[in-house]
From TrEMBL:
The keyword rRNA processing does not apply. GO terms for biological process: methylation. Residues 46-135 form the Methyltransferase domain. It comes from the Archaea. Residues 205-224 are annotated as: Disordered. This is Methyltransferase domain-containing protein. Keywords: Methyltransferase, Transferase.
C-alpha cells in the first residue's frame, strides 16, 4: 500500500460529496459487470468491500436478502447511507471495515463477496492476504472489478494514479484466487487496464457439493 489507511480514508472523505459526479465509461462498465456477475439469490448475504458510496451494494440490495458494505472512509459511508435511505432500502448496512479485516457481523453467513475499483490500493501481498481473508468466510462466489493489467502497465496512459495506486496484473490476481481455493469462471476485459474477474469456490474433496440450482434444489425435488 503506497499510502496508509488513514491517508486513503482522508483522501476519500474529502472527495465523498462529489465522488458520484466523476465517473468514467470504464468505471461504469466495470460496476455494471460486477453487479451482473454477482447475481445473488433472493436469500443471499452479500459483502461489498471498499463499498464507497454504494455503487455495487445498493443495486445488489434490490436482489439479495442482506448486503453488508464495508469501507474505511466515514465520508463515503455516510453518502452510501443517505442513498439507501432515499431508496427505502432497509436490508443494507454500511459500516467501518477493511479489506483484510472486514468486520462481518457474527450472525452473517456470506454467500457472495464483491469489490469494485478499490483493491488496487493494496500491494500484491496485501491483495493475497485479502483473498485469503475472504476465502475464510467461504462465499461461493467472489467478483472483483478493478484496475488490473492485461498487457502490463502503460506509463504513458495510466488508468490510475501511480503515486497512490498499486494495480496488479491479471495473472497475479488469478494466481491469488487459485491459492485461496477459488477458480476463475469469467474474465471480462473492459479496457487494457480495467477488468472484472469472477471466481467460484472450489469445493474440497470430501465436502458435499451444493446441488445444482442452489441449497433448496434437493428439497424441491423431494430429496432428503
Ligand atoms: C474508488 S472508491 C470505489 C468505491 C465503490 N466500490 C465504487 O465502485 O464506486 C475506493 C474505495 O475503497 C476504499 N478503501 C481503500 N482502501 C481500503 C481498505 N483497505 N479497506 C476498505 N476500504 C478501502 C476507499 O475508502 C474508497 O471508498
Amino acid at each position: 500500500m503506497k499510502r496508509s489507511l488513514d491517508e486513503h480514508a482522508a483522501r476519500f472523505d474529502e472527495m465523498a460529496a462529489d465522488y458520484d459526479d466523476d465517473e468514467s465509461d470504464e468505471y461504469r462498465a466495470c460496476a455494471s459487470l460486477v453487479v451482473e456477475h454477482a447475481d445473488p439469490r433472493p436469500g443471499d448475504t452479500v459483502l461489498d468491500l471498499g463499498t464507497g458510496t454504494g455503487a455495487i451494494a445498493l443495486p445488489l440490495a434490490e436482489e439479495a436478502e442482506r448486503v453488508i458494505g464495508r469501507d474505511i472512509s466515514e465520508g463515503m459511508l455516510e453518502e452510501a447511507r443517505e442513498k439507501a435511505t432515499d431508496r427505502g432500502l432497509s436490508n443494507v448496512e454500511f459500516g467501518e471495515g477493511r479489506f483484510r479485516e472486514p468486520a462481518v457481523p457474527d450472525d452473517a453467513d456470506v454467500d457472495v463477496v464483491t469489490t469494485n475499483f478499490a483493491m488496487h490500493h493494496l500491494s500484491d501481498a496485501e491483495k493475497r492476504e485479502t483473498l485469503d481473508a475472504i476465502a475464510g468466510l467461504e462465499p461461493r462466489r467472489v467478483v472483483l472489478g478493478d484496475v488490473m493489467f492485461f498487457d502490463g502497465p502503460d506509463p504513458d496512459d495510466p488508468f490510475y494514479s501511480p503515486e497512490v495506486d498499486d494495480p496488479a496484473t491479471v495473472g497475479t490476481l488469478a494466481d491469488a484466487f487459485t491459492a485461496a481455493g477459488y477458480a476463475l469462471t469469467a474474465v471480462e476485459r473492459v479496457h487494457d487496464q480495467v477488468g472484472v474477474l469472477v471466481a467460484e469456490r472450489v469445493v474440497p474433496v470430501g465436502e458435499p457439493a451444493e446441488p445444482v440450482g442452489g441449497p433448496d434444489a434437493a428439497d424441491a425435488e423431494g430429496g432428503s
